[in-house]
Amino acid sequence: MKNIMKNRSQTYRILLAIMLLLPLFIINCASQTPIPCLKEQGTAKQFIVDGKPFIALCGELTNNAATNLEYMKPIWPALKEGNLNSVIAGISWAMVEPEKGKFNFDIVGDVIKEARKNDLKLIFIWFASWKNGMSSYMPDWVKKDYEQFPRVKINNGETIELLTPLSEANRNADAQAFAALMKYIKEVDSSQRTVIMIQVENEVGILLDTRDRSAVANKAYNGPVPQKLMSYIEKNKDNLVPELKAAWKANGSKLSGTWEEVFGPGKPKGLVLPVRNLVPPMTQKEQDEALVTYPFYSDEVFMAWYYATYINYVAEAGKAEYPIPMYVNAWLKQREHSWPGTYPGGGPLPHVFDIWHAGAPSIDILGPDLYRPDFAYIAKQYIRSGNPLFIPETSGGVQGAANVIFAVGQLNALGFSPFGIERRLHPDDELSQSYKMISQLMPLIGKHQGMNSMGAVLLTKDNPSEDIAFGEQIFHTDLRFDPNNLHSSSSDLGAAIFIMTAPNEFYIGGIGISITFSQKNSEFKSGLATVEEGTFVDGKWIPGRRLAGDDTAQGNNLRLGNDYSILRVTLYSYK
């Protein structure tokens, strides 16, 4: 009987303790913000941060800026004053694991604290096995032990300082360090979510040759294509990117075989690639053709598979500790870098998207480092196959300020990040003002991403006018101040975002363009009803001047001038 009473007493005490602790547990759970993630809305994917749609209006610091707190001290407030809401900073594998198995994350914690103090979100780059097609951020104990951690061999067996992605030892060491990093970030940041995303490695790929020619790589290349990749290709044969579909079909649509049997010939023996393919030794014709063709495709697919599977292993190890979104970035094919090997061959470029999707399902985004002048064309390539657009490295200034409007408004971009931001950003420059405008519009943008009620234009001297339709209305955009005058003076660059919030009601933000209106039904004409300047404060529209007369060309058109501004516009129809 005593034992029964004793057991009951213990049970009551346990229940009482649970009841007393339960409110604290509930409060603690409620205080935690949701983990950053991607979710689908309509035809788009949204970046959800702190439980709300988020666009990373950020900049990437120079590679080693965040390795020293004193260096960063004046930079943090400048970033905030420049209307950034986030920043991309590098973390070096060599710094956090200077001795094998001994980790020091002090600098990581300090950077997180400083970003948080300045109300900035953080995206970290894991500079580890690879950076810009080379291996310069690995620890000294990895660098020195080239037998345990083997390098790539090129051409006739020359070794270069580039870890081979075909080594399990290389992969496992990187993954172990990355998992330790993500575990640390979870420990210090999971309640406040300052760190919202991770870039795994940087501009991966092979330079100076089209593929690894070490013994292990040659054996794999001359052996069968992995069944996992062949099964993916067969399953998705109707939706493959055009370049992969064409190469596979041209070689008989085989379901097995070596890399060359399935995807075609690799680089011929004896051809040595420089870092840049110049004219000469390339002819101008070869230079132009290489931009739109895919020479040595089997070599590039081969490398893409091994980079993708290696990075997927690393990302999986990290996500097992803390599963925030992760992405990889690409050094793009471009003039003077148009053969694989003159750009890092095997990186996540659009013509090998399927290889990356098959090999790296744990990677959420494939992103372009986009410095090419044909910004809109490349950005559109990066929404292939359902890939969400995130531009981790690009140009800022006047051009970047316009580019971000197009990327966000037309392509549902999740983020935009000019490189070397601490050297280029000023509170009153164009990028800062563009970011300020987009920040005001962000709640509206979040509601309309993927819903066919938002769009944008990017106008240049090569593309001075463009039409865009919403419902029954057609917007005719033009760089000319007077779109009805062929000889009118004009802007050199213009961009605008359009958000339809109700039938015939729009918020329009941008710079440097004129807009006229017509209807799909030619029996009707469109008229400007209400036009007002204004701003959004905490998501609420605060109207400014009401515009008509000279400010709307007597109701004929709108003009977004030389400063980034927002208009609320309503239209009507008449015969």
Q: Which terms summarize this structure?
A:
575 residues, alpha/beta, TIM Barrel, Chondroitinase Ac, Chain A, domain 3, 2 domains, eight-stranded parallel beta barrel, six-stranded antiparallel β-sheet, 23 strands, 35% helix, globular
In brief:
Helices cover 35% and strands 26% of the residues.
Describe the structure.
It is a single chain. The longest helix is centred in the N-terminal third of the chain and has 30 residues, at 2-31. The chain is globular. It has 18 helices and 23 strands. The protein is α/β, with parallel strands linked by helices and 575 residues long. Helix content is 35%, strand content 26%. A hairpin with a 2-residue loop joins strand 15 and strand 16.
List strands and helices in order, with pairings:
Layout lengths: L1 H30 L5 E5 L2 E6 L2 E2 L2 E5 L8 H4 L2 H7 L4 E7 H4 L9 H12 L3 E11 L8 H5 L6 E4 L3 E6 L4 H22 L5 E8 L12 H7 L5 H9 L6 H9 L8 H5 L20 H9 L4 H25 L4 E6 L21 H7 L5 E6 L4 H7 L8 E5 L2 H15 L3 E4 L2 H4 L5 H19 L5 E6 L5 E6 L2 E6 L15 E9 L2 E7 L1 E7 L5 E13 L2 E7 L11 E3 L4 E10 L1
Parallel strand pairs: 4-5, 4-13, 5-6, 6-9, 9-10, 10-11, 11-12, 12-13
Antiparallel strand pairs: 1-2, 2-3, 7-8, 14-17, 15-16, 16-19, 17-18, 18-23, 19-22, 20-21, 20-23
Helix pairs in contact: 7-13, 9-14, 13-14, 15-16, 16-18
